[in-house]
Write a structure and sequence with these properties.
Largest sheet of chain B: none
Mean pLDDT of chain A: 93
Structural class of chain A: alpha/beta
Strand order of the largest sheet of chain A: 8-9-10-3-11-12
Low-confidence stretches of chain A: 1-13
Oligomer: heterodimer
Number of strands of chain A: 12
Radius of gyration of chain B: 21 Å
Number of helices of chain A: 10
Number of helices of chain B: 8
CATH class of chain B: Mainly Alpha
Helix content of chain B: over 70%
Structural class of chain B: mainly alpha
Bound molecules: adenosine-5'-diphosphate, magnesium ion
Low-confidence stretches of chain B: none
Number of domains of chain B: 1
CATH architecture of chain B: Orthogonal Bundle
Shape of chain B: globular
Helix content of chain A: 25-40%
Largest sheet of chain A: 6 strands, mixed
Largest interface: A-B, 26 and 18 residues
Order of helices and strands of chain A: HEEEHEEEEHEHHHEHEHEEHH
CATH superfamily of chain B: MetI-like
Chain lengths: 270, 226
């Protein structure tokens, strides 16, 4: 598994084959609290993987490590074969320069539970900000692209609105459009419907189903919406206390889980 | 004792002149300097590495915790030390000391405004920084487009209060012999023995300027809310 797929650590440059994401001996501590220890898994190009497991099992931490919002305590993360924040130099583990990190981070996007739209900007500005200032798109191009994306998420008529004028479900759809505007290879979704009123969940999930159907973006999904997980993901990983205790296709995971902890967990949430 | 409206009326002209030429000038330019420097300090406190950051914090504390008149006198001593004004060419001593006042007021109040900015910056939820990182926005752009606009909105009322406080501190300019409005009032009152009238006019001018400013700030604050 992970050791077989681990890339040549000296190999620079994005390879066209091989896994999109490799987590190798990943360790994360908060102070003395070890949250992830010797975690290994990889995700293929275009693969959509759902992470499930009880609260506190480390799912969010994994996504945040990938987004470089948390510092990796040990081990390595590779994106397209390139180290994300730390690289192996012989026996040594070295931290990469921030310029290097941001070059690779650009391939990753994230949608948060709390949306985190910029309240000082209009919906349109939220979406065009990064394409203009990170990708160097022209204002007109970024605007046209953003309107297309808003159309896809069903909010074209709200382009000039400010985030506070939108419902939670609308805000989250804008946040999805904002992430997609950066044309990520990898999209991280952390309980994106958990903060929503139940009647607003459906629209957001529908948008994500469309994204899953119409793009080949690699997705890492943390969700409690098991039907959605079953519909969109190729593989489900069950986490407990920072370890993968079971890994299966959604059909198998949700109908015939093997591990006792998985059975208990699924019984509780389904 | 009788209030002499005529004396009060006669004091208006010269007092207003002193007000515009010194008090208002020092307050407006001093506020601009303080607001700009304060923001620089607040950003510096977050962005500088540990040791330089701690040194900056210490310097700001020292400036904030020493009296403004002392800083004015210190500034004047430094200026005088620099070869009795001659280095500054043809600039009149009064003008030079007015500039000095502007700079000292600006620096002094920048340390207070830095604290206000800091509170404003800290009030921004962590998720805003994280969203900026997730979009790969460079640090500078994150400050400019995301953090400062939001922090400013939270900070502006308090910056306005500091500007009004600065305005009320302008009589301290007496210690470096800059003829701001209150020392002018004293001079005029001394010449005519109509102290009550001239000081009353000076007070009214202060009030007439600071009250609308306060109202304006409140309006602005409302307008900035989203
Ligand atoms: N910023 C943090 N500081 C300290 N502990 C944290 C922090 N973030 C997460 N943790 C801890 O890490 C563990 C895993 O959390 P998390 O990744 O959020 O789990 P999940 O998303 O599966 O609920 C929990 O025990 C949590 O308390
Ligand atoms: Mg979580």
């Amino acid at each position: 598994m992970p050791t077989e797929t681990a890339p040549d650590p000296t190999g620079a440059g994005s390879s066209e084959t091989g896994p999109r994401i490799v987590m190798e001996n990943v360790r994360k501590q908060f102070g003395k609290n070890v949250v992830l220890d010797d975690l290994n898994f990889s995700v293929d190009r275009g693969e959509r993987v759902t992470l499930i497991g009880p609260s506190g099992s480390g799912k969010t931490t994994i996504l945040r490590l990938l987004m470089t919002l948390e510092e990796l305590t040990g081990g390595y993360i590779y994106v397209d074969g390139e180290p994300l924040t730390h690289a192996k130099r012989g026996e040594r583990r070295v931290k990469l320069r921030s310029g290097e990190v941001s070059r690779i981070r650009r391939r990753i996007g994230m949608v948060f539970q709390q949306f985190n739209l910029f309240p000082n900007m209009s919906v349109l500005e939220n979406i065009t900000e990064a394409p203009i200032h990170v990708l160097g798109r022209s204002k007109d191009q970024a605007r046209a692209d953003a309107l297309d994306l808003l159309d896809q998420v069903g909010l074209k008529d709200r382009a000039q609105a400010h985030p506070t004028q939108l419902s939670g479900g609308q805000q989250q759809r804008v946040a999805i459009a904002r992430a997609l505007a950066m044309e990520p290879e990898i999209l991280l979704l952390d309980e994106v419907t958990s903060a929503l009123d139940p009647e607003l969940v459906g629209d957001v999930l529908q948008v994500l189903r469309d994204v899953a159907r119409n793009t080949d973006i690699t997705m890492l999904i943390v969700t409690h919406e098991m039907q959605f997980a079953q519909d969109v993901s190729h593989r489900v990983l069950m986490f407990d206390q920072g370890h993968i205790i079971e890994e299966a296709s959604p059909q198998v995971m949700f109908t015939a889980p093997q591990h006792e902890r998985t059975q208990q967990f699924l019984q509780a949430v389904l | 004792m009788e209030f002499d409206p005529n004396a009060a009326f006669e004091a208006v002209g010269p007092l207003l002149a002193a007000f515009l030429q010194v008090t208002l000038l020092v307050t407006v330019l001093g506020s601009i300097i303080a607001a700009a420097l304060g923001l620089v300090w607040a950003i510096g406190r977050r962005e500088l590495p540990r040791i330089p950051g701690a040194i900056l914090a210490w310097i700001l504390d020292v400036v904030r915790m020493t009296p403004l008149p002392l800083q004015l006198l210190f500034g004047m001593a430094v200026v005088t030390e620099l070869d009795g004004f001659r280095r500054f060419g043809d600039i009149e001593p009064t003008t030079l000391l007015t500039y000095l006042g502007i700079v000292v007021f600006g620096i002094h109040y920048s340390t207070y405004m830095a604290e206000s900015y800091r509170a404003g910056i800290e009030s921004i939820r962590q998720g805003q920084w994280e969203a900026a990182t997730a979009l790969s926005l460079p640090r500078r752009r994150t400050w400019r487009a995301v953090i400062i606009p939001q922090a400013l909105r939270a900070t502006l009322p308090s910056l306005g209060n500091w500007a009004i406080a600065m305005f009320k501190d302008t009589p301290f300019l007496i210690v470096i012999t800059v003829p701001e409005m209150v020392s002018e009032a004293e001079r005029i009152g001394g010449a005519s023995f109509k102290y009550t009238e001239t000081f009353a006019v000076a007070g009214l001018i202060f009030l007439a300027a600071s009250y609308p400013t306060a109202v304006l700030m409140r309006k602005l604050e409302k307008k900035l809310a989203y």
